[in-house]
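Each record in this resource describes a single protein on a pair of labelled lines. With that in mind, the following record should read easily:

===
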Amino acid sequence: QVQLVESGGGLVQAGGSLRLSCAASGRTFSRNSLGWFRQAPGKERDFVAAIFWGGGSTTYADSVKGRFTISRDNAKNTVYLQMNSLKPEDTAVYYCAADTAFRRVPSIRREEYDYWGQGTQVTVSS
């Protein structure tokens, strides 16, 4: 049973930083990708960033390029999302997701991710 557990959300002022963590269990992801999506109230769940676990290649949404960094810790089976220079429009529930297909370039499509965490709230005040 695959489990993804997010942590690290909270309230931060604009310009501040947060680091989200996603602890994965239930299988190895050496040939898969893990990604972060976010959903603001009344909006769709949008892609943020993803990483191919095996080679480390990454993909980012244009809105977060240069501000967010996704990384992984093989020993801890954990994926991180370092978020810097946060803006009020980054406010959302952030979800970790796992794509069990083999793709060297991580997908940005929500429907290609098979497992999801419960989400963690990030609120950025102006």
